[in-house]
Amino acid sequence: SSAVQDQLRDVCQVQATALAFAAILRDGSVIAWGSSDHGGDSSSVQGQLRSVQKLQAARNAFAAIREDGSVVAWGDPENGGDCSGVQDQLRRVKQVQATLYAFAAILDDGSVVTWGNPAHGGDSSAVKGQLKNVQQVQATSLAFAAVLKDGSVVTWGNHTAGGYLPEGQHLFL
After folding, report:
1. Euclidean distance between CA atoms 61 and 101, whole angstroms
2. Largest CA-CA distance found in the chain, in angstroms, rounded
3. Calpha distance 14→12 (Å, rounded)
4. Neighbouring-strand partners of residue 23
5. Cα–Cα distance between 7 and 108 in angstroms, integer?
């Protein structure tokens, strides 16, 4: 961190990918360092990294939730570092969770928006109709599970990592 050491003052939160760190400063700005292939270079989005409230990290990318509920992502574009394909949907985000290669955001209306590697949770289209009234999202390394208000669970992502429930089978907690 020697290259950014003088900027690391009033740090509120630090997150880490496999080979990089990102820190939120008290003023809501973000400082990143480490491998640029793993999110250590945030220069392409630095102007958007204002009023940041929370950070989440995947293996190669970061996602920042801003005060207005929007999201900024950077790092490996194929594995979560590019959310431009869903940017217009990323409004009023409450929480972001990550697998190794994808992100899932819970919006304030209980819906979920995903991006990143489709095979590892970045594509939730097969279960999109079920992702309503989501209370919580958790992740394995390659799959997501969403807990709904009624106590049922919806999964997606890599089936060997927990991302699949057989058709017609519902898990209730």
Report:
1. 8
2. 56
3. 7
4. 14, 31
5. 33
**Cβ within 8 Å of residue 11, ≥6 positions away:** 23, 24, 25, 26
Long-range contacts of 40-47 (CB under 8 A, 24+ apart): 41/74, 42/74, 44/74, 45/72, 45/73, 45/74
The pLDDT value given to residue 158 = 85
Query: What is the residue-wise DSSP string for 24-88?
Result: EETTS-EEEEE-GGGT---TTTGGG--SEEEEEE-SSEEEEEETTS-EEEEE-GGGTT--GGGGG
CA gap 103, 114 in Å, rounded: 6
- From CA 42, how far away is CA 31, in angstroms rounded? 8
Examine the pLDDT at 168 and tell me if it is beyond 70.
no
Could you read off the pLDDT of 86-130 as tens digits, one per residue?
Answer: 999 999 999 999 999 999 999 999 999 999 999 999 999 999 999
Strands (E), 90-161: 93-98, 102-107, 112-116, 134-139, 143-148, 152-157
Give 132-142 pLDDT, tens digit per residue: 999 999 999 99
Residue 81's pLDDT is what? 97
Question: What percent of the chain has a predicted confidence (pLDDT) above 70?
Answer: 92
User: What are the strands of the beta sheet with 61-66, ordered from one edge?
Assistant: 52-57, 61-66, 71-75
